Amino acid sequence: MEKNNSKTRNASRPTLDRKAWIQTATDVLAEEGVTGLRVEVLAKHCGVTKGSFYWHFKDRQELLDEVLSQWKEGRIRDVSKQARAEPGQELNQLVKVIDVYSASRNRRGIQIELAVRDWARRDPKAAQVVEEVDEWRLKNARDLFVASGMPESEAKSRSLLLYAYSFGLSLMIYEHFDGDVAALRTQIADFIARGTQPEGDTRQAAK
User: Fold this and answer.
1) What distance lies between CA 145 and its chain's CA centroid?
2) Distance between CA 5 and CA 112 in Å, rounded?
3) Is 79 helix (H, G, I), strand (E, B) or coil?
4) What are the CA-CA distances from residue 22 to residues 17, 69, 207 (Å)?
5) One digit per residue, pLDDT tens: the chain, 207 residues?
6) Which has the closest alpha carbon to 162: 176, 180, 145, 183?
7) What pTM was estimated for this model as a whole?
């Protein structure tokens, strides 16, 4: 009878698959950083025992590796999608890429990005993953510039400028810097992508 009761209690406990653990770990990473990714903390978030965790993962490091792997795959997939352009539309796509990555629409994504980068300051595996993602981002931007007819050396410098601007902007609170921030961002995107002076800006011409 006791054995049957034990089975009933076990069956009533919530069960989590491997994917759910990774998603919970990513959410906790965004809020607490990598130091929050402890088995007992994650189990509490999920409302299960630590035994559930060890059913899916050999140890904490295996979970950390999966979190990094999924973040990397997601970022590469996203960049590859954003970098696709119809022939002859490469410059327009670059402007769109700059707008997407500088608009700070996805606050959750930024939280996770910052948490992973902070993690990379202390952990070689995380640092390697971040480096691979950054190289992929820069390569895709460079390829768009080159496809638009720009020399390789200039394409490299503009790719770096593109991401330095996009990610730098995501760290800043700049909404009150200008009366029309949206127009300002559009001008900057056009300048980075095409190297042209923003329309209506006569400061350079006056010099």
Assistant:
1) 22
2) 42
3) helix
4) 9, 10, 56
5) 444 444 434 444 446 789 999 999 999 999 999 999 999 999 998 888 888 899 999 999 999 999 999 999 999 999 999 889 888 888 889 888 888 877 656 778 889 999 999 999 999 999 999 999 999 999 999 999 999 999 999 999 999 999 999 888 888 888 888 888 888 888 888 889 887 655 554 434 333
6) 145
7) 0.81
Name residue 168's amino acid: G
Q: Which string of DSSP letters, residue by residue, matches 20-36?
A: HHHHHHHHHHHHH-GGG
Q: How far is CA 192 from the centre of its chain?
A: 21
Which distant-in-sequence residues (6+ apart) come within 8 Å of 175 by Cβ? 181
Closest C-alpha to 47, from 97, 13, 84, 80: 13
Phi, psi of 161 (to 5 degrees): -60, -40
Helices (H) and strands (E) in the chain, counts: 11, 0
Identify the DSSP state of 59.
S
**b/e per residue, 78-99, with b = 16+ CB within 10 A?**
ebeebbebeeeebbebbeebbb
| Cβ atoms 98, 192 nearer than 8 A | yes
User: Rounded CA gap, 9 and 156, in Å?
Assistant: 60
CB-based contact 187:195 (threshold 8 Å)? no
Residue 102 class from Cβ within 10 Å (0-12 exposed, 13-18 middle, 19+ buried)?
Answer: buried
